[in-house]
Amino acid sequence: MTSWTDDELARIGGADELRIAPRTAGGELARKTTIWVVREGDDLYVRSYRGHNGAWWRAAEESKAGQVEAGGVTKDVTFTDVTDTDLNDRLDAAYRDKYRSYSSTYVDPMVAEPARSATLRLIPA
């Protein structure tokens, strides 16, 4: 398994927004969607604001592969589901901390269901 470099972690994890493009059934990249990203240790995570109803999330869940862009880094990735409650609690704190300058109208849904159940770990391909 490939790991993120320290530079990639810093640049992507430090970016306010990430552009995500899951692969389609035909292997093409889908339209890019702008979302938030958080770092926990040496890993990067994303959540769907709309939970399992988010179009990009459904495509990512189906293909398990795609591409992300943030902080000047473009990287092919695979997606894995996050179901660990303790990890999701830490990610809630990371979202609250990183996006504290944004209205609670946006942050609160990112740390509640259904977004918590639509958390994906980004793994460099």
Summarize it.
This protein has 4 helices and 7 strands; from the N terminus they run H-E-E-E-E-H-E-E-H-H-E.
Distance between the termini: 8 Å
Task: Count up the domains.
Answer: 1
Q: Main sheet: which strands, in order across?
A: 2-1-5-6-7-4-3
Kindly state the mean pLDDT as a whole number?
A: 97
User: What is the CATH domain class?
Assistant: Mainly Beta
Instruction: Write the H/E string, N to C.
Output: HEEEEHEEHHE
What's the total helix number? 4
Detail the poorly predicted runs.
none
Rg: 13 Å
Beta-strand fraction estimate: 25-35%
CATH topology: Pnp Oxidase, Chain A
Q: At the fourth CATH level, what is the homologous superfamily?
A: Electron Transport, Fmn-binding Protein, Chain A
Instruction: Say how many strands there are.
Output: 7
Largest sheet: 7 strands, antiparallel
Overall geometric form: globular
Q: How much helix, percentage-wise, in residues?
A: 25-40%
Helices, strands, pairings?
Elements: H1 6-14, E1 18-22, E2 33-35, E3 37-40, E4 43-47, H2 55-63, E5 65-70, E6 73-81, H3 85-98, H4 104-110, E7 119-124
Antiparallel strand pairs: 1-2, 1-5, 3-4, 4-7, 5-6, 6-7
